[in-house]
Amino acid sequence: MSIVVGYLATVEGRAALTAATGEAVRRSEPLVVVVSERGDETDEQRAELATALDEVRASLEERDVPHDVRVIAGGRDVAESLIGTAEETDATLIVIGLRRRSPVGKLILGANAQRILLDSPCPVLAVKPDPS
Fold first, then answer.
1. Contact 37, 126 (CB under 8 A)
2. pLDDT tens for residues 43-62?
3. Where does the record place the UspA domain (predicted)?
4. Is-contact 86 118, C-beta < 8 A?
5. Tell me, what DSSP letter sits at residue 105?
6. Which value, to the nearest 10 degrees, does the dihedral of the CA atoms of residues 16, 8, 74, 46 take?
């Protein structure tokens, strides 16, 4: 059993990580952080990601949250990565971050988010960052 979170070093990704960490602590379950590389990152972007993931690991260790950080090689579908990880770890919850959208944009959910919501083997918690 685990909590699976899709993470990017963005405000949406940090909101998802915060919510997932809270759920992992509340449920006493390990957290699996899934990071999907696009495959076309520059060396600078890879270095920034490595730094962000080091900070994530340090934060989780500081809170004594059992965790596993999985970096999925570029080219693999994000939704497929999260769903596959959830199935593999017998996840009880997937947490994803959603971008804020305009009123018209709210009619259209991102393709990855939609696939995760529809195909997930477990409940999905979709969070948005604080508006501040």
1. no
2. 888 888 889 899 999 999 99
3. 3-128
4. no
5. G
6. -150
Edge-to-edge strands, sheet with 91-97: 67-72, 31-36, 2-6, 91-97, 124-127
Mean pLDDT, residues 116-131 taken together: 92
Residue 45: per-residue pLDDT: 81
Using a 10 angstrom Cβ sphere, with 0-12 exposed, 13-18 middle and 19 or more buried, the burial of residue 90 is exposed
Give residue 102's identity as a one-letter amino acid code: S
- The pTM of this model reads 0.88
Measure the CA–CA gap between 29 and 10, rounded to whole angstroms. 24
Cα separation, 99 vs 68, whole angstroms: 25
Strands 67-72 and 91-97: unpaired
Task: State the Cα angle at 38 between 118 and 81, rounded to 5°.
Answer: 35
